[in-house]
Design brief:
Radius of gyration of chain A: 22 Å
Number of helices of chain A: 7
Strand content of chain A: under 5%
CATH architecture of chain A: Up-down Bundle
Largest sheet of chain B: none
Radius of gyration of chain B: 23 Å
Distance between the termini of chain B: 44 Å
CATH topology of chain B: Cytochrome C Oxidase, Chain A
CATH class of chain A: Mainly Alpha
CATH class of chain B: Mainly Alpha
Oligomer: heterodimer
Distance between the termini of chain A: 49 Å
Number of domains of chain B: 1
Mean pLDDT of chain A: 88
Number of helices of chain B: 17
Mean pLDDT of chain B: 93
Shape of chain B: globular
Low-confidence stretches of chain B: 1-9
CATH architecture of chain B: Up-down Bundle
CATH superfamily of chain A: Cytochrome c oxidase, subunit III, four-helix bundle
Number of domains of chain A: 1
Helix content of chain B: 55-70%
Structural class of chain A: mainly alpha
Strand content of chain B: under 5%
Chain lengths: ~240, ~550
């Protein structure tokens, strides 16, 4: 947890050169770092439960309406989905490299990899926006004007699209938040706020970014790949 | 702070360390944030209480003469929403837990002070949404927001109300996250897990439920808002969606939420009983682990809310058995408290009176819960006043009595002043009597078949309803009196001194009210919790001196 409230901490006896600051209520840098890391993991646990509710709904409805889900899934753009998956995996790689650069104390390398992550994340969001637009054009958004041309069991397909937009939308909102944080981190890294001894925010943001990536790794097959072999869903 | 001279330091505490509204609204001190919560939660308690007054007034007569049906629906909905999301869930954790957790483990603050402050603002933002709904016309879905009524038919502000609960949920997630990290990483040297006070164990278990359960209600309410606002049906049968899925997701959080409300109370009661018997709690380890067991099993019993919602009979049986199992750790606690008091030198101070009330009322609430967990009987009792009586015994008789016990126990620590003992004992008595008079008749009403959520009822039910309304006015008085003397005590109470009750625990070793940094030097713990030998021998010396 980086801190702006230097005044509060300044009275503290244990200054650690190069470690950023140790906030007043911690005994040591290690304790502070441990606390931040555990906090991040606990937060990711809540995120799993947050997405979990939607995954639950997905599993129930796909079990009930395999045909509708299989045929509606064919409406997704396989190539754009696959492209986005690649982009996101690459962004996780650049993020991991960014954390590594930070641990080596290489400022410009860190900034470079963070920018690469930002660009890849932006590319993902751009493609996603294009896909949404495409769905809009084809009236594949649940509601009054919904239609699913040539879908089997079309009456149940709105459920698929409701979940498609709910799940990818929640995922995209996490990407957008991550995008915003990245911008701040890039600025801070450029200003030399992090050092080889202290780069906790980079490390914790890395955890968040990988988590969002992993969610997509689940979403891609569940939403795009149900029936690409043309066998009719579950069977 | 550190530059203050030694003499100044003695009188400086977290209350007078800084002055002005800004010093409160931007504070990162867990003790001050606890006070912010205390004020906000008390306001919401009064709002929810006002709704209860309207309900009981209406029900005093069989005819619907005070409120029309629509208004009545809105009133009981707001009562439920406000009391559950804005009073019961944050009451003990965010006020007492926030104040005491760092003190009890010998830390200077929670692990994330800014997140702690953020949680209060998130709570207030959710509260604003709630107040907006209240002022602009309310919502009539009941606090459970069941679909398809909430998504399709209701005329109230469903999205706004769901948003209030949704936002409020994040405040409790942040509190839970903060507590877990704090207990893991902020304990004083020598304070091992099994030296922790039971209050800390209870809050740890509560936090686990908060971080695992609350996100699920958040996403459920998110889906509800999407469905209501944008008409994309997740739970809409027109597209093959299932309203019962909403009930599953809703209760997956909302049943464990009951344990968010009751576990902290159990923590308070463990502390209070040990202190006023001057004995180590009987079976410390069992009480500690029973908290965790309740947290774990609490997640596996939600299906007992769906016995009549087209859930399969086999699923019902499993949920029924699991619901019985969760009674075991609860009973372990009750037996251990009783065993602690056995042959103890019980001092009937005010917090102890509330704690004793808790044990009795919680036992009735818990046992009637077993009636309702039995499928056959539940089919008869579902949606009757029996259910209403049951959960009020747990939530008011349990959670609120525990909260009041805790408030009376730690008030001298929080503000450094004692409240008038005679008045507080009268209030404890009124609360207990008023509570039973309010809710016991409702067991009978429910058994006789009076449904909940109706404001018109057959005349033969009137006598029990009049008893209940009369009891409610006594209960209201029982809540009002502490409000007055607590306020009075802030200026006029006797100075309390660091340890007015002869309690163990680190929080009693620092000044009352504590200094901003809690402890001048980080304490080192060398003994088990609840070691009364020193306190008892000091008392004995005092007696011989006097003699």
């Amino acid at each position: 947890m980086a801190s702006e409230s230097a005044a509060v901490a300044s009275h503290n006896a244990h200054a650690h050169p190069g470690y950023g600051e140790v906030r007043h209520h911690f005994e040591s840098y290690e304790q502070q770092k441990d606390a931040s890391t555990i906090g991040m993991w606990v937060f990711l646990l809540t995120e799993i439960m947050f997405f979990g509710g939607m995954f639950m709904a997905y599993f129930v409805y796909r079990q009930w309406y395999p045909t509708a889900f299989a045929s509606a899934s064919l409406k997704t753009n396989l190539w754009l989905g696959a492209f986005n998956t690649t982009v996101l995996i690459c962004s996780s790689l650049t993020m991991a490299m960014a954390v590594h650069s930070a641990s080596l104390g290489k400022r410009l390398l860190l900034v470079g990899f963070l920018i690469a992550t930002l660009v890849l994340g932006g590319a993902f969001l751009g493609v996603k926006a294009y896909e949404y637009h495409d769905k809009w054009e084809h009236h594949e958004i649940p509601g009054e004007h919904f239609e699913c041309e040539g879908c089997a069991d079309a009456g149940h397909t709105p459920l698929f699209f409701a979940l498609y937009f709910g799940m990818t939308g929640l995922h995209a909102s996490h990407m957008i938040i991550g995008f915003g944080i990245l911008v701040v981190l890039i600025w801070q890294a450029y200003k030399g706020k992090f050092s080889a001894k202290w780069y906790t925010p980079i490390e914790l943001f890395g955890l968040y970014w990988h988590f969002v990536d992993v969610v997509w790794i689940f979403l891609f097959p569940l939403l795009y790949l149900i029936d690409r072999s043309g066998q009719g869903g579950l069977h | 702070m550190i530059t203050a001279t030694a003499t100044e330091k003695e009188t400086k505490n977290y209350l007078n360390a800084e002055h002005g509204l800004k010093s409160w609204l931007l504070t990162q001190d867990h003790k001050r944030i606890a006070i912010l919560y205390l004020i906000a939660v008390s306001v919401f308690f009064m709002v929810g209480g006002l709704m209860a007054v309207l309900i009981r007034l209406e029900l005093a007569t069989p005819a619907g003469d005070l409120l029309d049906s629509n208004t009545y629906n809105k009133v009981f909905t707001m009562h439920g929403v406000v009391m559950i999301f804005f009073f019961l869930i944050p009451s003990i954790p965010a006020i007492l837990g926030n104040f005491l957790l760092p003190l009890m483990i010998g830390a200077k603050d929670l692990a994330f002070p800014r997140i702690n402050l953020l949680s209060w603002y998130v709570y207030m933002l959710g509260g604003l949404f709630g107040v907006f709904v209240l002022i602009t016309g309310g919502v009539d879905t009941g606090w459970t927001f069941y679909t398809p009524f909430s998504t399709t038919y209701s005329n109230g502000y469903v999205v706004m109300t769901a948003m209030a609960a949704f936002i409020n949920g994040f405040s409790s997630i942040l509190t839970g996250l903060n507590f877990i990290v704090t207990v893991h990483r902020m304990r004083a040297p020598g304070l091992t897990w099994f030296r922790l006070p039971l209050f800390v164990w209870a809050h740890y278990a509560t936090s686990v439920i908060m971080i695992l359960g609350t996100p699920v209600i958040a996403v459920t309410l998110f889906l509800l808002m999407l469905e209501r606002g944008l008409h994309i049906g997740f739970f809409d049968p027109a597209y093959g969606g299932d309203p019962v899925l909403f009930q599953h997701l809703f209760w997956f959080y909302s049943h464990p939420a009951v344990y968010i409300m009751i576990l902290p109370s159990m923590g308070v009661v463990s502390e209070v009983i040990s202190t006023f018997c001057s004995k180590k709690p009987f079976g410390y380890t069992f009480i500690a682990f029973s908290s965790l067991a309740i947290a774990v099993f609490g997640f596996l019993v939600w299906g007992h809310h769906l016995y009549v919602s087209s859930q399969s009979a086999y699923a019902g049986m499993v949920f029924s058995i699991l619901s019985y199992i969760v009674a075991i750790p609860s009973a372990v606690k009750v037996f251990n408290w009783a065993a602690t008091m056995y042959k103890g030198n019980v001092r009937l101070e005010t917090p102890m009176l509330y704690a004793l009330g808790f044990i009795g009322l919680f036992t009735i609430g818990g046992l009637t819960g077993l009636f309702l967990a039995a499928m056959g009987l539940d089919v008869h009792l579902t949606d009757t006043y029996f259910v209403v009586a049951h959960f009020h015994y747990v939530m008011v008789g349990g959670a609120v009595m525990g909260y009041l016990a805790g408030l009376h126990f730690w008030w001298p620590k929080m503000f450094g002043r004692m409240y008038p003992q005679a008045w507080s004992k009268i209030a404890a008595g009124l609360t207990f009597v008023g509570f039973n008079l309010t809710f016991f008749p409702q067991f009978i009403l429910g058994y006789l078949g009076m449904p909940r959520r109706y404001h018109v009822y057959p005349p033969e039910f009137q006598v029990f309803n009049v008893l209940s309304s009369a009891g409610a006015s006594i209960l209201g008085l029982g809540f009002l009196i502490p409000g007055i003397y607590f306020f009075w005590s802030l200026k006029n109470g006797e100075p309390a001194g660091p340890n007015p009750w002869g309690a163990t625990g680190l929080e009693w070793q620092t000044a009352s009210p504590p200094p901003t940094e809690n402890f001048p030097i980080t304490p080192v713990v060398t003994a088990e919790a609840y070691d009364y030998t020193e306190i008892l021998s000091a008392n004995a010396k005092e007696v011989t001196h006097v003699g």
